[in-house]
Amino acid sequence: MTDTGSEKLLSKLDRRWAFQLGAFWMIIAAISFTTMLFLVRYLEGRYPSIEVVFFRALAGLVFVVPIFLRQGRNGFHTKHFGMHISRTLFALAAMFFFYYGVAHVSMSNATAFTFIIPLFATVGAALFLKESVDLPRWGAAIVGFFGTLIIIRPGYAEISLPVLAMLLSAVFYAGSWLSMKVLTKTDSASLIVFYMNVMIVPLTLIPTIFIGFLPNLPDLIVLLGIGLTGSFAHFCQARSFGKTDASAVIPFDFLRLPMAVAWGWFFFAETTDLWTWVGAVVIFSSTYYIAWRESRVQKKI
Question: For the whole model, what pTM was predicted?
Fold first, then answer.
């Protein structure tokens, strides 16, 4: 075998290994995210969502504080503190509505609504970041919107407050994503997560003291588990996207839906109708198309 042939073979093996690692981390992320959903549903709204956000942020510090203890004061430096505040407020609102909604809707519907976030982010990037969004991506976003209508079926099914909360959480999560996209140009991912959790803890501590409830030991473990599994899911997603193209591993993220359906049926006797599946497939297909097209554009640059 020639040197060129050997190099091509090694390059092919490297890409395959990178894809396998990316798929592995995305599957672990899907399991972690579904576990977080299960824990929130297990609490059944016994605690205000603002208190759940507080414990989510408190537990999230476990992942980033050790990093900055090793780096020293220089690790905290940022030129865009105002943008960190904006990102934190978006994330706080997103988690507040998300945890409220998850406590009252089925795990399958909660999972399906999270697939909408990239679609809102696409619209937000065009409106607020002035990014160029071509016609196919706009078309994919519109298709994803119709997928959302398939799930909630306005006029045929009741649009409850939890459902509206899930939609609002997707909007605010998209704002958080866009803020993070701006910040990642100058700041590390660990610094972004650190500032978010450090700000959210005091912002949610005060209302938690006044309207929250003192959890018993089992519920305290669950609350901290929500924070740990949620943070670990984002960590795994970042590792997955760092290994290979997002369009290659995003299909594995769809595993969250069948897992949520299975867990919801087994633990909470939840049923999932056909329209949730149809809508989720439509939303996910449009999301995948956007990710695939984005990867093609980046390769051409």
Answer: 0.85
